[in-house]
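Try this one yourself first.
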């Protein structure tokens, strides 16, 4: 069956620096992944490469069987939704949430368009699904960080992506907002026709049961990729963070203890 994403021997070099070394990674339908890596391990660079913002030096990227470089990348981007904090800066402060969500349908196309009543209804459905329909008319400037993340996800879902990448979506959330947000992501993963999710994080607490697979990165290389049950161990996490760590599991979820060196 065609993979949602198929990356083979991806290498990114800039000047004399190799940022990604021969990364291979395959996402099959129905899988939800976490990319876990320390600061500087190459997570953002990998995402930028997958979405066409960083040009690879070598290797192959296929999204839904379309090869990067041979297909129109702008069209492929419609299949890959990305929620990155850096994109937030481009949203006009006075824009209300409903309009931000509607723009998700057209933003990546560069086409002249007229918003239809069907677009409005679809955007409202997405806001409702994200639990924030009551914020439809609130301007971006007045939304909290957690509300903004939900608006951005609703916006990304307007294009009906097959893959939805969430880049550190819990950054800046308080513990309660984070728990609520993760419950929302968990719920999103169970919806019929849901995209494959990729959550990028440094925090094991954010690896909720929704996520079936892990990509562990260290210094631009894949340390391991596969099923969470096999990879989520203290030994692997110690290797990821290059420090002795112990993974604690409890009813409340996962927690990582860093042992004093
Ligand atoms: N254009 C560039 N030229 C040279 N080095 C770069 C470039 N872009 C990124 N790097 C380096 O590549 C490495 C990986 O950076 P990247 O931002 O992808 O890491 P990250 O895992 O997302 O880190 P963080 O968790 O801190 O956001 C870093 O050492 C960074 O300095």
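Now uncover the answer:
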């Amino acid at each position: 069956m065609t993979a949602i994403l198929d990356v083979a021997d991806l290498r990114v070099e800039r000047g004399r620096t190799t940022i990604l070394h021969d990364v291979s990674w395959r996402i099959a339908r129905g899988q939800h992944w976490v990319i876990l890596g320390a600061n500087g391990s190459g997570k953002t660079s990998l995402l930028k490469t997958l979405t066409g913002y960083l040009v690879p030096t070598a290797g192959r990227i296929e999204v839904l069987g379309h090869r990067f470089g041979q297909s129109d990348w702008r069209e492929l981007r419609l299949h890959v939704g990305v929620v990155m904090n850096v994109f937030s800066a481009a949203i006009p402060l006075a824009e209300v949430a409903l309009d931000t969500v509607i723009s998700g349908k057209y933003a990546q196309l560069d086409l002249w368009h007229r918003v239809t009543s069907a677009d409005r209804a679809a955007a409202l459905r997405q806001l409702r699904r994200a639990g924030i329909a009551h914020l439809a008319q609130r301007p971006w400037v007045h939304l909290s960080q957690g509300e903004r993340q939900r608006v951005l996800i609703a916006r990304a879902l307007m294009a009906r992506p097959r893959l939805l990448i969430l880049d550190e979506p819990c950054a800046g959330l308080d513990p309660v907002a984070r728990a609520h947000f993760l419950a929302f992501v968990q719920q999103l993963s169970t919806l019929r026709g849901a995209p494959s999710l990729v959550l990028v994080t440094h925090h094991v607490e954010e690896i909720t049961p929704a996520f079936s697979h892990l990509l562990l990165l260290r210094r631009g290389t894949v340390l391991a990729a596969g099923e969470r049950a096999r990879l989520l161990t203290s030994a692997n996490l110690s290797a990821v963070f290059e420090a002795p760590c112990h993974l604690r599991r409890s009813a409340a979820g996962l927690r990582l203890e860093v042992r004093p060196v």
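Discussion: The longest strand covers residues 17-27. The pocket of adenosine-5'-triphosphate is lined by residues 14, 17, 19, 37, 39-45 (CB under 6 Å).
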